[in-house]
Each structure stands twice: as structure tokens, then as C-alpha cells.
Amino acid sequence: MKEHDAIIVGAGHNGLVAACYLARAGLNVLVLERNEYIGGAAVSRQLYKDFTYSNCSYVCSLLRPEIIRTLELPKYGLQIIPYEGGCTMMRDGGHLAVYDNHDAFRREIARHSKRDAESYERYARDVMRQCKFIKPLLMREPPDPTSFRPRDIQELLYLGKRFHNMGEQRMYETLRFWTMSAADFLDEYFESEIVKAHFSGSSIIGTALGPRSPGSAYVLLHHYMGDIDDTVGAWGFARGGMGAITQALGESLKASGGSIRASAPVEKILVRNERAVGVRLAGGEELFAPMVVSNMDVRRTFLNTMDESDLPPEFVRQVKNFKIRGSSGKLNIALDGLPSFPAIPPGSPCIRGDLHVTDTIEMVERAYDDWKAGRWSQAPYIDMLIPTQIDPTMTPNGKHYMSVFVQYCPYRLADGDWTPAKRQAFGDTVIDTIAQHSPDFKKLILHAEIRTPWDIENEVGLTEGNIFQGELTLDQLLFNRPIPGYAQYRGPVRGLYMCGSSTHPGGGVMGAPGANAARAILRDASRGSRAAH
Amino acid sequence: MVDAVSSLTHFKQPLLKTPFHERARELSQVDSFIPWAGYTTVDVFTTADQEYFAIRNATTLFDLTPMVKYRITGVDAESYLNRLVTRDIGKLKQDRVMYCVWCNDAGHIIDDGTVFRLGRQEFRLCTAQRQIDWLLESAVGFDVELSEVTEQIAALAVQGPTSCATLKAFGLQGIELIKPFETRHFTVEGMNIMASRTGFTGDLGYELWMDPQHAEQIWDRLMQAGNSRGIRAIGSQALNIARIEAGFLSPNVDFVSSEHTIRLGRDRSPLELGLSWLVDFNKGHFNGRRALLQEQRRGLARQLVGLDIDGNKPAVNSLLYLDKAGNREIGSVTSAIWSPTCKRNIALAMVEAPYFRLGTSLWTEIYLNRELVWERRMVQARVVEKPFFAPARRRATPPADC
Amino acid sequence: MNGGTYDCIVIGAGHNGLVCAAYLARAGKSVLVLEAAGQVGGAAVTREFTPGFKVSACAHLLHLMPADIVSELNLAGHGLKLASRGLSTTALRESQSPFTLDAAGLSAVSIRDAAGFQAYTAQMRKFAAVLMSALDAPPPRLGTNELKDKLSLLRLGWKLRKLGRRDMRELLRIGGMNVYDLLEEHFETAELKGALGLDATLGTNYGPRTPGTVLSLLYRMACEGAAHNEITAAQGGMGAVCEALAASARAAGAHIRVNATVSRIVVESDRATGVVLAGDEHIRARTIISSADPKSTLLGLLGTRHLDTGFVRSVRHLRGKGLTAKLHLALKELPAFRGVSTQQLRGRLLIAPSLDHIERAYNHSKYGEYSSEPVLEISVPSIDDATLAPTGSHVLSAIVQYAPYDLKGGWDAARQKFLDIAVRRIETFAPGLSTSVLASELVTPVDIERDFKISGGHWHHAEFAFDQFFMVRPVPGAAQYATPLPGLFLCGAGSHPGGGVTGLPGRNAARRIIGMN
Fold this sequence. Notes:
The structure holds three protein chains of three kinds. Helix content of chain A is 36%, strand content 18%. By secondary structure, chain A is of the alpha/beta class. Chain A folds into three domains: 6-51 and 60-80 and 239-324 and 464-532, 3-Layer(bba) Sandwich (FAD/NAD(P)-binding domain), CATH 3.50.50.60; 84-99 and 329-409 and 412-451, Alpha-Beta Complex (Polyamine Oxidase, Chain A, domain 2); 114-231, no CATH class. In chain A, a hairpin with a 4-residue loop joins strand 13 (275-281) and strand 14 (286-288). In chain A, helix 1 runs parallel beside helix 17 (512-532). The mean pLDDT of chain A is 94. By secondary structure, chain B is of the alpha+beta class. Chain B has three domains: 2-65 and 153-246, 2-Layer Sandwich (Gyrase A, domain 2); 68-151, Alpha-Beta Plaits; 276-384, Elongation Factor Tu (Ef-tu), domain 3 (Beta Barrel), CATH 2.40.30.110. Chain B has helices at residues 2-6, 21-27, 48-57, 77-84, 132-138, 163-170, 215-226, 236-246, 289-298, and strands spanning 32-36, 39-44, 60-63, 68-73, 97-103, 109-119, 122-127, 145-148, 154-159, 183-188, 191-196, 205-210, 232-233, 302-309, 319-321, 329-339, 344-352, 361-370, 373-384. In chain B, strands 10-11-12-9-3-13 form a six-stranded mixed β-sheet. In chain B, strands 14-17-16-15-18-19 form a six-stranded antiparallel β-barrel. Chain B is globular, with a radius of gyration of 22 Å. The mean pLDDT of chain B is 96. By secondary structure, chain C is an alpha/beta fold. Chain C has three domains: 2-45 and 65-81 and 235-319 and 457-516, 3-Layer(bba) Sandwich (FAD/NAD(P)-binding domain); 101-226, no CATH class; 320-452, Guanine Nucleotide Dissociation Inhibitor, domain 2 (2-Layer Sandwich). The chains are: A alpha/beta, B alpha+beta, C alpha/beta. The A-B interface holds A 92-95, 97, 99, 101-104, 106-108, 111, 114-115, 118-119, 121-122, 125, 128-129, 132, 165-167, 169-170, 342-350 and B 1-2, 5-6, 8, 10-12, 14-15, 35, 38, 106, 130-133, 136, 148, 259-265.
């Protein structure tokens, strides 16, 4: 009856990463994907003729280099190109650009504050110190602090030792950093509003926090943890859009003997005798494997795809309490040409990076207040990119694709469900916001795909459209992620595993949860086979 | 607004040009420029060796403008600086200069530089790296005004055995009377020039501080005045050889500012850098004092020393060992050159306790690239006194032939 | 001018200064307490705000001071009388009758919540007790090789482990959470969640959605637990508590001087050796302990020239701008709150109809505005305490949030407006209240700063937040009460564990100083 060693539910990047590692270890792996295309939220799709969109995720920074290398993704077509800069345009027509060149960037900040230009070095240093501490933890399984198992104790000691090795002063800095708000953190470095506003952006992307919420400084760091070619904190484009990552993973998987079935929505994870034994597809077809690995978020996995009676009640309660909130929307726009942004100096490479229009922290915080009240931000935080300046293959020559990530946008509106009219109104708010900084922008729009958290949930399957499969707050990090006591990728029934961003170290196109889960699975598998012999 | 934006050039040309830039370009034979503190400056004009020998033999001009300059004034200017640096600024008399270092709370060096006392309540601080953030933070609670004046002051180092004569011929009457670390103001054809008897070469030499508007004119006149005294412009490479011979430290080479280190244990204290003579524990509180006292009680974990190394291959980036087999690593070289004047293979190196004692013998691991084939040599070295070269003329007042 | 020599000088006769002085004196030290004001108490003082009407200027209920401090210092023997005990907490509701936060009161509102409340309270009190073991001692330093630091960490770890696996996990999970989510997990009644959420945000720069509010709630519950979970009011208001503390300290041999403003701390050979008073009197001591807030102490009384720049930077970045105002009303008669019994009126009345309501009130404060619809904790202390108001008349004392220190346009222009808003808000629950008002006062954070010399006018001196808590409170390098300057210590609310009339920072500091000799 055994057809496969492991079934992976969901062909998102983490599901594919896990599958690749398992297949390379010799397991017979099947990945099931409910959509007709693979990739989950890391996809490139053509919704408008000859235009390729990175429909959901749009920046490749966090994907762990060791995964790219081990799974030979470049061989299967993946190429990552770093950003050349970035820019926040101001309401008064001014701007703050980010430049790769150290001196150019210093002089750019100095236009706004001479002191900030030099404080930036202290800022970069401190962020880097924290990154150095955290980065090795990304690819490790968090310990259970309540357990006395040697592995957990060993891992706790490892954590303790790494922490201890930072030295007294930096340990305190770390304690503060992990718990403070981005606004307070930035206040300790900068005096200029525009500088603070620019850096605060990454503290809120994908989370239901405002820049003044304690814990947002950690989110800021989470977005800095990526590295491209050893440049820590660098962000980049995937050539051909984000789908290139999952396509490469898919190819790598096939090359190691794994298989993928698209258009195969899993309706139920089957449990017999307190053991996961396989899945039932929407059509009724049942597939069996001794290991079932869910790439879906924990809410979807345990509340929608399993029978509550198969799970411990306490666990179900905890899953229900797992915080997973839609806070962001996305616009993908086909443009007839490159829009002009009068605030950006002609010839400046910063236009080839991430562009923003929120020029004070207060603006970002007010955008968050709208979300709390159940409406989309009236003056949203926007993270927009025109990747076709770097990768012209995504559109016909001379045309452009613009990716617009929008924060905040609630999953549930205070005034009732999302409707097509409301979705359009949300899109208009965003387009109007951009048009305030680009006079010809509206004229150039050929097509716009507008995605609310509701759409993201429905199409991608991310609960509430949360891009991280769960908030990155202190109560849901490390050994608390996703559920205290279940942070080691194993579910509450034997044979069931989790490999999505709901697990440590969390979201972003990082692949670490998938790789860590695969390691846990293989350890169990070898223990199992040893026991069988 | 749009006009202001289109006039931005820093993303096209991130590096600034000093007021001497056009003159330097004219003299540059090898077109070798390097960035230094946000400016583009000359690494080598002709060859480093020729330029170096001019430092020890004639007169050299080195464009110092990128040195970061701060103006510090106010009732508390003296107490501010005293809390900032490790030396006693109270002992710095008007028209004199002090070489200083300053530390963070942990007693680790942020930077070194020179403090000029221009008046009772007016000072100038010259450093290699920008640090307004730290300087302003240190000003909390002090009645001082602080501003960066780098772009307002052009600076030129005039160094070498004939520098005094050159300057005298240039028009600085009485220059021969100023003692090491003294400054004096001159007017030459209506141009105000401040001269200080300071430098980074360990030789006789002066530094001139002037209005950038007069920079080219002064350069030209100096070249003329020094023509018969072998004057030539030099770049950073030549200066680097001279400063290692003189045992001077270079930031980001011999130490990294504690404001910039990311890894633990990479910071250096003035005691470790062999600069305990700059630390005055009796002057009252200063940044890092409590930590340095503790370090003094504990004893040093490592110290920067001079090395005399066998052979003639510079031990650049070499690791140091206690034994020839290379089993016990005890430090590393921070700066190394073949000293053309001393005819010795010298280096500055950070060595673990207790091996930094004078006379200790140790081994350096040197890699040689011989026609693309790398060879590894274990070469014996000894801990020796610094400076390696200290001619009497650097202190003589008045200098010979002046 | 020479004012003598002591073992210890305590700057400020607030409750923490007095607690510290009392413990030091009991340990045999010669102690001098110097207080700038004309009476002891600092912000824990009872003031006559209009002729005949007296009220506690800041905190108005006694429920956070650990019972062992009260008994060790024998406050009862030194004149502390309780006007009322076992006070209840009642949540007022817009259109329905109010309910008291206990099993009986809640069962009238929601059977589910009534049951849940018991379980929730029991669990939270258990967690609070673990936290208390950390609050009750000087925080350890990290990365040292000292046994006492390691033991202290181990002790905390052991307390956590002893909770058992399930509870330990739960505490580790909720510890960093916001109270909004926590309460949503447990309860359905909006006003219950509002009332509990208010407790978590009182005196802080937090809305219920702010992560860290569970910690501030646990902090409050930990202190309450150490005070045997009983809300009381002191006869004569909070000032009477400090009078008793002062009497206890005096009895142990401490000298207390009022009208003695310290103008600076004297440093000799890198050691604090005394203080100079306004008027130039110089008093020497081996140890100087300041109960003033860290910024005033370190940047003001001491001065930056005796400190390192990095440390000054941390002190400067210490956040401590208050958002809590106090409303005092002199009333012709006993106020009548709709549906509120006399028994309920003697206790705490809360106006915080829902978590979202508190959050909206908080939103304003982020942008330098006062809440358009503030949240309040109300007490009418004169019911049980005849010393506070003329017979038949009453005082109403209310904590009002949010009233940010940094109000746009300043408080002088806005004080009356916000006072009116607060009164109107109370009046919706107590119709006709305004016609009974004889006199009124609104004490804003700016007033607290001016009257009690607390920079920023914050109850906790330094914002109660994760990044300013435990071993980083107030800042690394001064978290064990000793400052970087030998001989100078902190013992105020800005030090571990924090504010509220607990006396814990004062006792911890005293223990630390005694332990060092």
C-alpha cells in the first residue's frame, strides 16, 4: 500500500525545499499542490499578455545561500541580482535615496542630517552584530526549553553559549533589540524624520504591528538577515520573477527523483491509530505514505485539513490562538513605459530599487491605526519595485512591470466582507497614492492585478493572507513557533510534520523552515529504520 | 525642488575633490587615486620609492585636506576635551598641539588624532575618520559648540629634512623657531597660513592649514620655493612607509575603531596599542577611565609591538607563532614593510601576553608569490623598540641649514 | 558650610527613598534623607487641592506594597491605618448595569466568563508569583563569572521549571504578548476585557494591543499577590503611607530633612562623597542613594562629566514621558453612578468599555493628542475616610488616560479642556455629577514633573517596557542599583522592578548596599 515515503502538502518554496532534501536523502517524495501551478506565494505568472508578474512575494533576500548551493538552484535556472538602491519620496517633493556606494549614501543622508549620515555607521554596525548572532540560529531546530531531553538541553546550551559569547554589553543590547519598537530603536540612532521613516519600513512588512509596537525592531532585523553573495542585508531580484525560485526547486526535485502533482488539492490528512498515514484529495482519491509533511500554515493544516478528533484538544486550542493576520495587499501593474518620479534625480540608480512614499514614522503608524480599525490604510505604506529595469525579460521591450506591496490592508473589514467594488477602491487608494509622486503613472497603466489578504488566502491558501504564515512576535518566535512544545517541526500525531513559514525561523522566501523540517524528518526516519532492523 | 534634485551629483561622483586636486592630477604620472575619508586622493604620483626617499632626503608635499577637522569652542571646551581624550588637555598651552586618543566606555580606542589649542576656549580636533555622532553625544552636559570644518580648511603636510628651508624661502619668516607640536600664524602675500610642527613621517616636518581659496597659489609657491631643495608631491604609499618606520599607527590597519567593530574582542585599548604614555589617570574622569584602570590591574592580554624580521620579504598580514612548526599562534602583523632607510625588515604586530616583551623571539609566516607560485616561509623575528627610525633632526630647533 | 557626615544619604523622601532609608537604618547605617519638598512622600503624597478637600496626588489605592515590607517596617505600629480594605473593582457599562469583577458579579453577565475568570486569575497569579521572585531581588548581571549572578539566573530558571511543562510553556508564550490577544483568548464580555486591559495599561505608554502589556499586567499582579491580593486605601490618603514609612525610618535611627533640595552630588577621586544643598551646605557620606529618576540623578545632580559617553547615551535614550493624568473633584455630595451600589462605590470603578476603546484612546497619545474619550479608574476615597473632605462632601479621585507629556500645543492651553472631557465622560455614568463639582484639578504629567521633580512626569520614572526591564532597567551598567560612579546608587521607580507604590526598588537597593559591605 505504501506508494511514497513522504507526501508533502503544498508546493510552496518551503514544501519544495523540504522535498528536495528528502529526495536527495533517497526518499520517494510526492509533492501535492492544489493550484495548477507550483510555487505557492513565490510565483511568476502571466495575468496580462506577455507580462510576467511576481504575483505575491517580490524580493529575494532571505533565501539561505546554503540551500541555493546544496540544491544546485543556479543549475536549474535561478539567478539573483542585487538591488541598486532604493528611495523614499517625500510629500514636499524631496527624497532620500539609498546608494550602494558608501560615500554617495553618506552624502545623501547628510543632505537631511549630517549627524545621521555618521550615526548610520553605528546603526549598520549594531544591526550587523545582531544578524551575526541570529543567522546561525536560522538553520537550526529550536530547543524545547521545558524538556530534559539531551538534544534540547544541548541546543539550549548552544544558544546560551552563543549568547554568552557576545559579551555582557552586547547581551543587553540583544535583549533590548529583541523587545523594543522600531521607532524607539531608530530614535536611538537618527534625528531626521525621513531617515527614520525610510528604515522603519522593513519593521512592519508582513506584520500586524506598527513601527511603535514593541517587537517591531526584531521584524526589521528579520528583513536584514538575508545575504546575497556574502553581502549581509542585501535584497535582490530573482531573474524571471519569484517563480524562478520555485521553478528551480521543482527542477532540482525532479532531478533527484521526487515528483510533483499540481491541481491536486488535499482535502484531508488521514490519521489512523494516532498516526498520519496519508491524504485524501478533493476528488476522493487517497494517497498513502508513512510521513505527511504540511507546507500549509498551522491554522490551515490542523483546523481545515484535519479532523479535530485526531488531535489533542489542548493543541487545537493553541492552534486557534496562533496569531496569523492579514495585514498586507499587493498590486501588480503592467506599465506602458517607465513612470517618471520627479522627486528622483535624473540618472539616479535608486529608481532600480525599492521605492516608498511614507516620509514620517507617524504616517506609517497612522496607516497601522487604520488597520486596527478594520479598514485599509488611507495613506498606505508602499514598497514598490520596477524589476523590469533590471530584468527586461519579464515584459515586452520598453514596457515595465511594477510590483506594489501595500501595508496595511485587513483581512476582515469593519464594514463587512470584501467585495469587488471594495477591492477596486483599495487598489484606487494605492494607485492614487503613487500618482501623487508620479504625474504620468496612471496614464501608463495597462493592467493592474489587485490582491487583498482575502484574495491571497483564497488563491495561495495563506490563512488570512498573512505572508509569514503567522505573526513574527515574541510569543511566536523560536521555541514558541508555531506552538510551544511543537517547535521541532513535528506535529502532534506521529508521522506528521510541518515545514511552512509557520515554523521557525518564520516567513519570507528563506527556505530555512523547509530545510530544518527535512533534517528533523530524516533524523526520525533513520531512527525508525534503526528501530526496524 | 526639481532643480535642487537635478543638481545632485553625489551618486554620479561620490568622492569629493580637494582644493589641490587639479595640481595633483597634473603631477600624477600613474593616475593612481584612492578614496580617503570621502575624497579622492593620490596613492602614488610616480613611484612610491622615489617619493619615500624625498621624505627622508628633501621636501615633500602631501595633501592632508581629507583629515577630518572639528572646531570646538565654548566655556567648557577644555573640560569637554578632557572628558573625551585620555591625555590632560589642561596641560595643552595655547598654540600647541597634542597627539591624543579617545576611547569608548570599555576603554577601547575610537580613534586617534591631534588637538590644537587655538585659544583659551577654542580647539581644533583633527582625525582620520568622521565621528560627529560620538563627539556630539559626548557634548551632552557641556557648554560647547562643535562643528565639522573639514571643507573650510585645506591642509598640506610639508615634510623632510629640507622642509624648514623650503618654508622659509616660501616666506614663513621664523618658521625655524617653532618647536615640535607648536603652531604659529603667518601671512604670506595677504594669505593667512597656520603652520604646525607636526607630521606623520617621523622626520622634520610641518603641516600648513589654510583657506581653500589660497590652496593652489600656496601649492605653486611652495613648489617654486622648494625647487632647489628637491621638493616633490607624494602619495599615501610613500607616507605609509615613513609612518611605519616612525612607529605611528594607522586606523583600520593597526586598529579598528571600537565604534566600527562587529566581532567581539576586536577592539583595542590604548594600553594594548602601547600608548599608555597617552593615558593620564590623574587628571580626573575621562571616557573609559574606569575600564582602563581595571585593564591595568588585570594586566594586558596583548600588545602592539615592533618586530625586526629576518630576510627582506615584508611580513604583510603574517600570522605569528611561538615555534617554527607553527603550532602555537601568538598574534599577527598589522603593518609591515622593508625599511629603505634602516635596511631592516620591520613590522608592527599585535602579540599575545607574555610574548610582547622586548627581545622575545618568535616566528612569522610569510607567503611569497614567485612567478605565480606561492611559497611559505617561517622566518624568525624579534620584538624590538619603536620607532625604527628617529632622526635627531625631527626635534632639532632650529633645524640644520635653517 | 559643613552639614556633617553619614554612612548614607538618600536623596528624596518618596516611598522608595523612605523604604530604602528605613532598611539601611535598620541595618545599622547612619542615614540622612534629604527631601526638597516641605513634607515627605514625593509623588505619594496627600495634598489639599482646594480648601477642605484632600486627595492622594498620584496613586490613590494601596494594593501593590508587599505585605512583608509593611510588616518588616511595622507601618501599622508607625501610624498607618487603613480606611478601607477588600475593595472591589467594578466595570461600568454604557447602557447596561455595571458588574463587579468577581465570580458573583460576572455570573450575572456571562456564565462562561465567570468560570473563565477564576481559571484565568488563578493561572495569572501563579505566573505573577514566578515573576515576583525576580522582582524581589536585584537583577543579575549577564556574562559575569560571579556566583551570585549565576545563582540568581538559576533560581529564576528553576522557578519557571517548577511551574510544570504546560504552564511554563504558557508563560513563555504569553510573557511577550499583548494583553489584547491574551484577553481575546479567554473572555467574551467586552467590559471585562476592557477592565482587565486597563489594568495592564495604567501608568504606561501602552495600548492593549502593544506587546509587553501582558508583562505590565503580570507586574501589577505580582505586586498585588505580594500584598495578598487586597485593595486597600490608607486613612489620610497615600501621604499617610509615607508618613508611616518616615516614622519607621526615624525609629530605626534615620534622619529626615525636608525643605532640603540637593543641588548636586559631590565627586572626589572618582567617588561620590556627598551632596551640596541649595544654599551651599555640603554633607558628606560614604554612599549616596538617589530615589530621583535616573535622568535627573545622573544627567542633572551628578552631571555627564563624571560618566562615560556611551552610558550617557543610554540614559538619554531612557524613555519616560508620562501619559497618565489625575483628576480630582471636590463634590458637594456623594456622586451617584448609574446602577452602582454603595459597596461598589467604595472600591474602584473602571471606565474602559472595551479593548478597542482603550486602543482608540491610546491612538491619540501617539501623536501628541489627549484621548477624545479617555479611560478612567475612579475612586471616592472620602466615603471611608472622613479626613479627606468636609462632612457630607466628597472627593473623587480618578486616573485618566491618555494625557501625553508631549501634548501638541502644551498643557497650559489644554488642561481645562481635557479636564472637562474627563468630567463629561464620568458624567455619562454618573448623571448630574458636574452640578455637584465645587472645585476641580487635573494633574498632568507636566505638573507631576514640576511638582515632584520626576522628569517626564512618568509614574514609573522610566517607561515600563521589556527593553527597560529587569537587567536592563534603567540602563545596562546601572541595573544593579550601583551606577558607574563608585558610591552612587539608585533606588527609585526607575530602577528594577519599577513604579507603583511597592517599595521594592527601595528595599532591593538597600539590600544590595548592605550586601556590598
